[in-house]
Design a protein that fits this description.
The complex is a heterodimer. Chain A is about 30% helix and about 25% strand. By secondary structure, chain A is of the alpha/beta class. In chain A, β16 and β17 form a beta hairpin. In chain B, β3, α7 and β4 form a beta-alpha-beta unit. The chains are: A alpha/beta, B alpha/beta.
Chain lengths: ~350, ~350
């Protein structure tokens, strides 16, 4: 039986993963950490005198706080042997993207990796990365496998830069004989209700975004529930390496924006930067989240055959539109007919 | 040796090894040395030796390629979106496209959209039937399943040759197959065009895309001349330019046969009098052509003339029966095999002009 430390458990993806692992009989204790207060969603899981789930509030970008956690008796007593690194989201579902906090994503990855390597108890590390790290060639849809090149262009957008830095940090330890490292590269993550995570252009609250006229990049998407399943599979697998994780659906950015109530307004390419900057000055901070560089014109789909072959991951949820209780059409993730 | 030897291969007007291609080869060919005459002799001797090696049976060490199979056109109903066109187009072509799209919804990994393909097919079929009045033969050489690479000559300013070949292969294959044409990367940077091409099944030519298409068992259409083919002047029409070799590498890795195809008519649809290359470089476009109608009639001058198209498919060449995936890394082998395909296409053109 394995016990797990989940970072950023207060964020939507972290919460989803914690819930999934809590229902897994092969997982013992779960320690969730995050910057926010204890999520109310955890109340149901923290009953009894010695609950399987504990939550601690700490700043993962602070070396001292993370060090104290890894050397604490409570972590030792929980028998934690696996770390699930959920990344800092670019924005909360309700608010605008927090640009100033984005570089902390890299700092957190570095600190966590360092302590996981130093700790004798930690045997595995499962990290969530982003598929936006790949270099895109010209084209509506680039089909990308795990061996595709990363975008090491120094002028890459800062939001993507942090993903690349984290990716390279984890990638550097994949051959480590003591610590098993699994890196899951995720495309745009969608959740029921129309929430969008880990997409530099669509994160944050609903509202219009900008895209280049004449381009409508193809977007790979994955349901948040499938992300939790992939983490669970990676946890119990003995494999190490990088895996692309994606759902069945692919859709152009215009449709993705429409479905998630973030309509992407076409703006002529040369004016895109000026329009986004102008809107940001007028207080529409989320318009700055317009995809930068090649991602604003070129799309990608992910080759997930390696994850299917080695982890046994097949997307189990479909993403579609459904009419919500208030009559509005919203994104819904539902189990696919062949869901295991 | 099952590779068909064409009469006149290597000795025609532009047969076999052209001047440009020889120049390219001599750099990397270890057998070539000395003056041009010696180099010429060495090159031909080396190519002959390579063919002899190719004739020997070789261990078949690669795994079988996976296959994708659509239902036969006779087994499916016409898609509801196309039924209103039945009296105009006829049931046969509509059944073909409906059978191909059976079971496909949304977008595939390369952006092919069922919705867009259904809308675009009547337009391209009209051009195929009424404007270019396409005649074709040799469809039986396109494998009915599994991956294959269709290598054709390229001509005309706008890629109608690709569109006509795709429509032709779709109409004459059972079960219907849609060759996925490989586009130059420049096409992927064009606003609107990149989206439309992807939605009707065309794919930008990256190694990942090419490899995955063949691994999925798709037929892939390539124009190995690249943009050199579409910008060649009228004096060079139907004379093949040097071939790029990437398609051979992928064909060997995926164990896919190569089907040579000749498209006659494309070089007549917009005869280029001359290409202003400095202007093209300045504008960052592949060609700045002057034709009898362009730029005199503005953008309308780019429209192709209503020439008759003829498409001829040659016998498939099974390189993978003699060469393994490892040979894809050998530039001399790959270059020689590309030249072999080039000779086949040139022979098809010369025989049927």
């Amino acid at each position: 039986m394995t016990s797990v430390l989940v970072t950023h458990a207060d964020l939507p993806l972290g919460r989803r993963i914690v819930k999934r692992l809590w229902h897994d009989p092969a997982v013992g204790q779960i320690v969730g950490v995050g910057e926010g207060p204890t999520p109310r969603a955890f109340d149901a899981y923290r009953v009894g005198s010695s609950p399987r789930l504990r939550y601690e509030r700490l700043d993962l970008a602070r070396q001292r706080e993370v060090s104290d956690l890894f050397h604490s008796r409570r972590l030792r007593e929980a028998g934690v042997d696996t770390v699930v690194c959920v990344p800092r989201h670019g924005a909360t579902p309700e608010g605008p993207p927090s640009w100033a906090r984005l570089p902390l994503r890299t700092a957190e990855a570095r600190i966590l990796l360092q302590h996981a390597l130093e700790s004798q108890a930690i045997r595995s590390l499962v990290a969530l990365g982003s598929a936006f790290v790949y270099r895109l060639d010209a084209g509506h849809a680039n089909h990308l496998s795990e061996s595709s090149d990363l975008d090491l262009d120094p002028s890459v957008a800062s939001s993507v830069r942090t993903w690349i830095d984290c990716d390279m940090l984890y990638h550097g330890e994949i051959g480590n004989p003591r610590l098993r490292v699994v890196l899951l590269r995720l495309p745009t993550v969608l959740a029921s209700g129309g929430y969008v995570y880990l997409n530099p252009g669509l994160e944050g609250g609903s509202g219009p975004r900008l895209r280049a006229t004449g381009f409508d990049p193809l977007c790979a998407v994955v349901a948040d529930k499938d992300v939790a399943r992939a983490v669970q599979l990676a946890l119990h697998s003995r494999r190490t390496g990088v895996y692309n994780i994606a759902g069945r659906e692919l859709m152009p950015l215009s449709r993705l924006g429409h479905w998630t109530r973030r309509p992407c307004l076409p703006v002529p390419g040369p004016l895109l930067w000026a329009a986004a900057a102008g809107a940001a000055r007028l207080g529409r901070e989320e318009w700055r989240a317009t995809l930068d560089g090649p991602h604003r014109r070129f799309g990608f789909s992910l080759d997930t055959r390696r994850a299917e072959r080695e982890l046994g991951f097949r997307p189990g949820y479909r993403v579609g539109l459904a009419r919500a209780g208030d009559g509005a059409m919203r994104i819904e993730t539902v189990p696919a007919p062949s869901h295991p | 040796m099952t590779i068909p030897e064409e009469p006149g291969a290597g000795t025609g007007a532009n047969g076999g090894t052209g001047t440009d291609e020889r120049g390219g080869l001599l750099v990397s060919n270890p057998l070539a040395s000395g003056g041009s005459q010696d180099a010429d002799t060495s090159l031909h001797a080396w190519l002959d030796a390579l063919e002899r090696v190719a004739a020997q049976p070789r261990r078949n060490d690669a795994r079988p390629a996976p296959r994708i199979r659509a239902p036969s056109a006779a087994d499916v109903e016409i898609a509801p979106e196309l039924r209103r066109l039945e009296s105009w187009i006829g049931a046969g072509p509509l059944r073909q496209v409906s059978a191909y799209l059976e079971g496909r919804d949304g977008y595939d990994a390369f952006g092919l959209s069922r919705e867009t393909l259904l809308r675009a097919f009547p337009f391209f079929y009209s051009i195929y039937r009424a404007y270019f009045r396409v005649q074709s033969r040799g469809h039986e050489h396109i494998p009915s399943e599994g991956p294959c690479v269709i290598a054709a000559n390229h001509g005309g300013l706008l890629p109608f040759d690709g569109a006509m070949l795709v429509v032709d292969a779709m109409l004459h294959s059972d079960p219907p197959r849609l060759p996925r044409a490989i586009l130059d990367r420049w096409a992927g940077t064009l606003p609107f065009v990149n989206v439309f091409f992807a939605k009707v099944g065309q794919v930008v030519g990256t190694h990942e895309n090419f490899g995955r298409l063949l691994a999925d068992g798709e037929p892939v259409l390539v124009f190995p001349e690249g943009v050199e083919g579409i910008r060649k002047p009228i004096t060079q029409r139907y004379r093949l330019q040097p071939f790029h070799v990437g398609f051979i590498e992928h064909a060997l890795r995926a164990r896919a046969p190569v089907v040579p195809a000749a498209v006659l008519g494309s070089d007549d649809q917009a005869p280029i009098l001359f290409d202003i290359k400095p202007l093209a470089r300045l504008l960052g476009i592949p060609a700045a052509p002057v034709t009898p109608t362009f730029p005199w009639f503005g953008p309308l001058g780019l429209l192709p003339y209503p020439v008759r198209y003829r498409i001829i498919y040659g016998e498939p060449i099974h390189f993978h029966e003699r060469f393994g995936a490892d040979d894809a890394r050998d530039p001399t082998v790959v270059r020689a095999l590309a030249n072999r395909v080039r000779r086949s296409v040139q022979t098809l053109i010369d025989r049927n002009r």
